């Protein structure tokens, strides 16, 4: 029996224990954006350090001004050096009332079609995905005695909240981290439940919070209505102008640096079995929003966006209150492509808002982090090897796809460490990440662990 | 000593006890718009019934499908019959963090200028004002043995939440209530701290809540952003078009029925010592919003408005969440003047929103009540008598003013009972009604009680 075969065997026999380990991790509510959960983030980091040590990694949770960053190394292999990245923090869980069960009390549940799902916040994004890789490493050590590659594992706790402290950490540990030849990232999706994918481009992001300040206190709309500036109306009017009638973003210079995908890439996209009806139908929609002259796949993979992610102002409780509030605020994010500069986009947004504020009102801005888009060199040998390993496991050709989301660290790996990244993940589009009832298919978890075991073997063949 | 002089004397000697009675009333959190406070509204009604009985009124709290309506009568006088109206419900108190003290733990505090204020939710709107009239009745009974007029007191508990059940109550008790010759309402303001006012016109209102439904669940803006309809953006765009560049409301037919005040009324307004700088400066603003070709006084007294009173959608907590929410909602109210029809305005608003919703989204509407504007016949004798009584108490000429707020019952009194209303109140513009740190000047409470004692005497002279 080959080493890989023993490893795959071991994984198949270790599923129950692997699920129990994942459950332990999922039970800790590591919501990074809310300071109330800081101790839970630290506890999560400690749990991971201990687990990696049991496998044989030298592991440490490095304190930052935010949440800890974990660095773990097992360099005993004679093979090539890979740097695995994942994140242990999760999104908030509100609205809690829409969850079928406690988001931090994970369980495996069965659907009518016979598939089984791991349910809980972080099951897919990204704790479940991270554990597919860690379990593959554990299996290599247990079944084969050694890893096929030198492995460095880097796990951050602020991916869902701007990732402010990772770039500085990469700078500080640059010499150590740049010894790797490629990065491995497990935070993306399958193309379909049966077709694995390597994501070869990611949109970047700029995110801003804007608070419009008007009167010095909340006002009665009877006494002041008509004469006093209404910050909700000012905010709505400005945000309502963020797109033109054709769905294009109206910020000055917004499309600077936006490029079209190569003909080759576009051709591959056209060959994919993708329809807007199916993609949007899944979530109760039919008609693509956004730029009217673009295909749905372009809209989510290769076109930049402006989205209002949150808005609040005035009375929002039950009933009615005739108030003109003192302030109103919104959270706005921009998905970026090509060479778009996040800082330039943030600056243009602030100028856009400020140009729409009456003289005695004021706009306050809070930046929530940004990152440029990235595109991978799909012709490099590791991409073909990993693709083959995935195709072997899933018994179908793995595909190269675009990605609409943003994983800022991938750009940082390229710029700071000179590393390209293999973005391989086993999430599915219906995993409800960032939403109530997040889940990860048990099949994703099982074949994900096996896939990583194969990818590590394939990269070692270099 | 005349009967009136004895009554005024009694009021001056009874201040501490009157304040303690008001405090008891203020301590009950009768927030009518929030179902969680329904029992407190009932308790408030019971407290008032008991208090009115101690004065000698036959009083009863009538149950409705909402909060109780109190009807109390003392018809022993040979004088004319008046119907006093007030409301015992109060506005919500959020944001609670901006209150200097518990809104339902009232106290009298002193300002640096030596003035003293009764602080608490409802101190001014409307519990404090209601008690100025009840205390005046108590003093007439105690000091003179009888009221100078036949008095019916009508107190509702849904003024701040649409007043849905009062019109039906007026219909049901029409014969009894229409025996009065005029209505007295204490829910308005002084012209200035030294100048009392009778409000002779009130704006009407139409209020609507709109909920935009898009996807069947919250979405990740990376996966779906650019292709999925964003309900916040749809809402912002629609509400941003509610006014044109000159501040006019863009609803179709909105200005139907809007008339200009008479030249006489406009002339009196011009003689008032009013400046936009002072009015808006009080709340940290300078520049009148709204229609650019109207004076600030017109904007708040004689022009209709559209105001967004609340908006919410997506993630509004600390930090950032890249979500495209399934829904977003807003509460919008319209102040109406002249013959504007609240139902027509609500209908035009719904059509306006529906015309701006993409095909696979849906707008849901909730009506929160409406009322037309009203204008009083200032030439009728009770207006001159009441004006003289106020001028005597405050030792300065009382003025007739317009009112920007809406007191729907005033229109109902006219339409259902054939009664005009004397709108006399002692609130001040800085009372922070509907806002944190609501207060009622002790001077308003003291001279307000004395004013009603005089007004009752003056109306009895008929």
From TrEMBL, chains A, B:
<keyword id="KW-0479">Metal-binding</keyword>
<dbReference type="GO" id="GO:0008233">
    <property type="term" value="F:peptidase activity"/>
</dbReference>
<dbReference type="GO" id="GO:0046872">
    <property type="term" value="F:metal ion binding"/>
</dbReference>
<feature type="domain" description="Peptidase M20 dimerisation">
    <location>
        <begin position="201"/>
        <end position="360"/>
    </location>
</feature>
<dbReference type="GO" id="GO:0006508">
    <property type="term" value="P:proteolysis"/>
</dbReference>
<dbReference type="InterPro" id="IPR011650">
    <property type="entry name" value="Peptidase_M20_dimer"/>
</dbReference>
<dbReference type="Pfam" id="PF07687">
    <property type="entry name" value="M20_dimer"/>
</dbReference>
<dbReference type="InterPro" id="IPR051458">
    <property type="entry name" value="Cyt/Met_Dipeptidase"/>
</dbReference>
<keyword id="KW-0645">Protease</keyword>
<dbReference type="Pfam" id="PF01546">
    <property type="entry name" value="Peptidase_M20"/>
</dbReference>
<keyword id="KW-0378">Hydrolase</keyword>
<protein>
    <submittedName>
        <fullName>M20/M25/M40 family metallo-hydrolase</fullName>
    </submittedName>
</protein>
<dbReference type="InterPro" id="IPR002933">
    <property type="entry name" value="Peptidase_M20"/>
</dbReference>
């Amino acid at each position: 029996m080959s080493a890989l075969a023993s490893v795959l065997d071991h994984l198949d026999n270790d599923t129950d224990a692997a699920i129990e380990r994942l459950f332990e991790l999922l039970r800790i509510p590591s919501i990074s954006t809310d300071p109330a959960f800081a101790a839970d983030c630290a506890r999560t980091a400690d749990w991971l350090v201990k687990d990696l040590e049991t496998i044989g990694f030298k592991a440490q949770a490095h304190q930052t001004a935010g949440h800890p960053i974990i660095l773990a190394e097992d360099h005993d292999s004679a093979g090539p050096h890979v740097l695995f990245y994942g994140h242990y923090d999760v999104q908030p869980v509100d609205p809690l009332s829409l969850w079928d069960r406690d988001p931090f009390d994970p369980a495996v549940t069965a659907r009518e079609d016979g598939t089984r799902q791991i349910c809980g916040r972080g099951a897919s994004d990204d704790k479940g995905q991270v554990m597919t890789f860690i379990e593959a490493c554990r299996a290599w050590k247990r079944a084969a005695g050694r890893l096929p590659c030198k492995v460095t594992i880097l796990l951050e706790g602020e991916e869902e909240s701007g990732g402010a402290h990772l770039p500085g950490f990469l700078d500080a540990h640059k010499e150590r981290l740049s010894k790797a030849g490629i990065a491995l990232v497990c935070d993306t999706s399958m193309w379909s439940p049966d077709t694995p994918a390597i994501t070869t481009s990611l949109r970047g992001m700029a995110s801003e919070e804007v608070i419009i300040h008007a009167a010095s206190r909340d006002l009665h709309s009877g006494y002041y209505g008509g004469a006093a500036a209404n910050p909700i109306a000012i905010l709505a009017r400005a945000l309502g102008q963020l797109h033109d009638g054709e769905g294009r973003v109206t910020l000055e210079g917004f499309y600077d640096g936006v490029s079209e995908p190569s003909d080759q890439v576009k051709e591959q996209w056209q060959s994919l079995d993708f329809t807007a009806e199916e993609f949007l139908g899944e979530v109760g929609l039919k008609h693509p929003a956004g730029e009217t002259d673009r295909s749905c796949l372009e809209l989510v993979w290769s076109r930049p966006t402006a989205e209002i992610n949150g808005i609040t102002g005035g009375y929002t409780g039950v009933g009615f209150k005739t108030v003109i509030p003192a302030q109103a605020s919104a959270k706005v994010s921009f998905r970026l492509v090509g060479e778009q500069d996040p800082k330039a986009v943030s600056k243009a947004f602030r100028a856009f808002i400020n140009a729409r504020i009456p003289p005695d009102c004021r706009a306050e801005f809070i930046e929530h982090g940004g990152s440029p888009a990235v595109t991978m060199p799909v012709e490099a040998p590791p991409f073909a090897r990993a693709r083959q390993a995935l195709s072997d496991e899933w018994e179908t050709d793995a595909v190269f796809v675009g990605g609409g989301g943003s994983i800022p660290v991938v750009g940082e790996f390229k710029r700071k460490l000179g590393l390209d990244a293999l973005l391989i993940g086993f999430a599915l589009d219906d995993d409800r990440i960032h939403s109530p009832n997040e889940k990860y298919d048990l099949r994703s978890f099982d074949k994900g662990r096996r896939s990583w075991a194969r990818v590590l073997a394939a990269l070692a063949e270099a």
